[in-house]
Write a structure and sequence with these properties.
5 helices
């Protein structure tokens, strides 16, 4: 069973239950409290995008990019990607910010 997220940019995002297990960890949930935009939110109060929201979007887009690459590469290179391969790409997208702390891009 999948989990549905309503994203302001991408609309409805459906994620596999394996991805949701990663999202439900305390390590991932802490990303809710880290701003993606750093100190820019002080200048632009409407910029309240968190690393949590960003990571969900990257997870979704990594699957979209993989699907589009397959459509373009399949006829020429006969590329095969399994559902496990696709899930691994999405996990990488989901967890790419997991080690970031607050203001980590300032220095």
């Amino acid at each position: 069973m999948a989990c549905i997220f309503n994203d302001p940019i991408h609309g409805t995002i459906e994620l596999d239950k394996v991805l949701v297990k990663f999202i439900d960890t305390p390590e991932f949930q802490r990303l809710r409290n880290i701003k993606q935009t750093g100190i820019a939110a002080f200048v632009y109060p409407g910029a309240t995008h968190t690393r949590f929201e960003h990571s969900i979007g990257v997870c979704y887009l990594s699957g979209v990019v993989l699907d589009r690459l397959l459509i373009q590469l399949q006829p020429e290179f006969n590329v095969t990607v399994t559902s496990v391969d696709r899930l691994c790409v999405q996990i990488a997208g989901l967890l790419h910010d997991i080690g970031h702390g607050p203001f980590s891009h300032l220095f």
